[in-house]
Write a structure and sequence with these properties.
By secondary structure, the protein is mainly alpha-helical. It is built from three helices and no strands.
Length: 128
Amino acid sequence: MAGFGDIVQKAFYLGVGLASYAGEKAGGKLAEVRSQVQKLADEMVAKGEMNTEEARRFVEEMMKQAQQPQGSGETSEKTPPSEPRRIEILEEDEEPTVKEASADENVDKLRQEVLDLQEELKRLQRDQ
Protein backbone atom coordinates (compact mmCIF):
# COMPACT_ATOMS: atom_id res chain seq x y z
CA MET A 1 0.00 0.00 0.00
CA ALA A 2 3.05 2.27 0.18
CA GLY A 3 2.69 2.75 -3.57
CA PHE A 4 -0.63 4.56 -3.08
CA GLY A 5 0.96 6.89 -0.54
CA ASP A 6 3.65 7.74 -3.08
CA ILE A 7 0.99 8.50 -5.67
CA VAL A 8 -0.88 10.78 -3.26
CA GLN A 9 2.35 12.53 -2.31
CA LYS A 10 3.33 12.98 -5.95
CA ALA A 11 -0.13 14.32 -6.78
CA PHE A 12 0.19 16.83 -3.94
CA TYR A 13 3.64 17.92 -5.11
CA LEU A 14 2.35 18.20 -8.68
CA GLY A 15 -0.40 20.54 -7.51
CA VAL A 16 2.07 22.68 -5.58
CA GLY A 17 4.40 22.74 -8.58
CA LEU A 18 1.63 23.78 -10.95
CA ALA A 19 0.56 26.59 -8.62
CA SER A 20 4.15 27.78 -8.36
CA TYR A 21 4.62 27.65 -12.14
CA ALA A 22 1.40 29.63 -12.71
CA GLY A 23 2.60 32.27 -10.26
CA GLU A 24 5.95 32.57 -12.03
CA LYS A 25 4.26 32.92 -15.44
CA ALA A 26 1.94 35.64 -14.12
CA GLY A 27 4.90 37.50 -12.60
CA GLY A 28 6.76 37.28 -15.91
CA LYS A 29 3.78 38.69 -17.82
CA LEU A 30 3.47 41.59 -15.37
CA ALA A 31 7.15 42.39 -15.76
CA GLU A 32 6.72 42.36 -19.53
CA VAL A 33 3.69 44.67 -19.33
CA ARG A 34 5.57 47.05 -17.00
CA SER A 35 8.47 47.17 -19.47
CA GLN A 36 6.18 48.00 -22.39
CA VAL A 37 4.27 50.65 -20.44
CA GLN A 38 7.52 52.21 -19.22
CA LYS A 39 8.83 52.32 -22.80
CA LEU A 40 5.65 54.04 -23.97
CA ALA A 41 5.84 56.57 -21.13
CA ASP A 42 9.51 57.29 -21.93
CA GLU A 43 8.61 57.93 -25.58
CA MET A 44 5.84 60.32 -24.56
CA VAL A 45 8.21 62.20 -22.26
CA ALA A 46 10.77 62.42 -25.07
CA LYS A 47 8.13 63.88 -27.39
CA GLY A 48 7.08 66.37 -24.72
CA GLU A 49 3.57 64.98 -24.45
CA MET A 50 3.93 64.51 -20.67
CA ASN A 51 6.42 65.29 -17.93
CA THR A 52 8.27 62.72 -15.81
CA GLU A 53 5.81 62.92 -12.91
CA GLU A 54 2.87 62.31 -15.25
CA ALA A 55 4.78 59.41 -16.80
CA ARG A 56 5.40 57.85 -13.38
CA ARG A 57 1.69 58.12 -12.47
CA PHE A 58 0.75 56.74 -15.90
CA VAL A 59 2.94 53.66 -15.39
CA GLU A 60 1.56 53.09 -11.89
CA GLU A 61 -2.05 53.40 -13.09
CA MET A 62 -1.48 51.02 -15.99
CA MET A 63 0.10 48.45 -13.66
CA LYS A 64 -2.87 48.69 -11.28
CA GLN A 65 -5.21 48.06 -14.18
CA ALA A 66 -3.10 45.14 -15.40
CA GLN A 67 -3.24 43.50 -11.97
CA GLN A 68 -7.03 43.77 -11.65
CA PRO A 69 -9.12 40.75 -12.63
CA GLN A 70 -10.46 41.05 -16.15
CA GLY A 71 -14.12 41.27 -15.11
CA SER A 72 -13.63 44.21 -12.74
CA GLY A 73 -11.77 46.35 -15.29
CA GLU A 74 -15.01 47.41 -16.99
CA THR A 75 -15.95 50.04 -14.40
CA SER A 76 -13.20 52.30 -13.19
CA GLU A 77 -13.09 53.87 -9.75
CA LYS A 78 -13.42 57.39 -11.21
CA THR A 79 -16.67 56.84 -13.11
CA PRO A 80 -19.58 55.48 -11.07
CA PRO A 81 -21.80 52.90 -12.74
CA SER A 82 -24.85 54.33 -14.53
CA GLU A 83 -27.21 52.41 -12.25
CA PRO A 84 -26.91 50.57 -8.94
CA ARG A 85 -25.76 46.98 -8.95
CA ARG A 86 -28.71 44.60 -9.06
CA ILE A 87 -29.08 42.11 -6.22
CA GLU A 88 -31.17 39.01 -6.74
CA ILE A 89 -33.02 37.77 -3.67
CA LEU A 90 -34.02 34.11 -3.80
CA GLU A 91 -36.81 32.73 -1.71
CA GLU A 92 -35.91 29.77 0.47
CA ASP A 93 -37.91 27.37 -1.69
CA GLU A 94 -36.34 28.60 -4.94
CA GLU A 95 -33.62 26.51 -6.54
CA PRO A 96 -30.39 28.19 -7.69
CA THR A 97 -29.77 28.35 -11.42
CA VAL A 98 -28.08 25.43 -13.13
CA LYS A 99 -24.81 27.35 -13.47
CA GLU A 100 -24.74 28.23 -9.75
CA ALA A 101 -25.70 24.71 -8.71
CA SER A 102 -23.01 23.06 -10.85
CA ALA A 103 -20.33 25.47 -9.60
CA ASP A 104 -21.32 24.81 -5.98
CA GLU A 105 -21.34 21.07 -6.61
CA ASN A 106 -17.88 21.22 -8.20
CA VAL A 107 -16.49 23.18 -5.26
CA ASP A 108 -18.06 20.74 -2.79
CA LYS A 109 -16.71 17.74 -4.71
CA LEU A 110 -13.20 19.22 -4.85
CA ARG A 111 -13.30 20.13 -1.17
CA GLN A 112 -14.39 16.58 -0.28
CA GLU A 113 -11.65 15.10 -2.49
CA VAL A 114 -9.03 17.21 -0.72
CA LEU A 115 -10.35 16.13 2.69
CA ASP A 116 -10.37 12.48 1.60
CA LEU A 117 -6.79 12.75 0.31
CA GLN A 118 -5.67 14.41 3.54
CA GLU A 119 -7.24 11.63 5.60
CA GLU A 120 -5.67 8.98 3.38
CA LEU A 121 -2.27 10.66 3.71
CA LYS A 122 -2.59 10.79 7.51
CA ARG A 123 -3.60 7.13 7.58
CA LEU A 124 -0.67 6.14 5.38
CA GLN A 125 1.75 8.11 7.53
CA ARG A 126 0.48 6.32 10.66
CA ASP A 127 0.85 2.92 8.98
CA GLN A 128 4.50 3.49 8.12
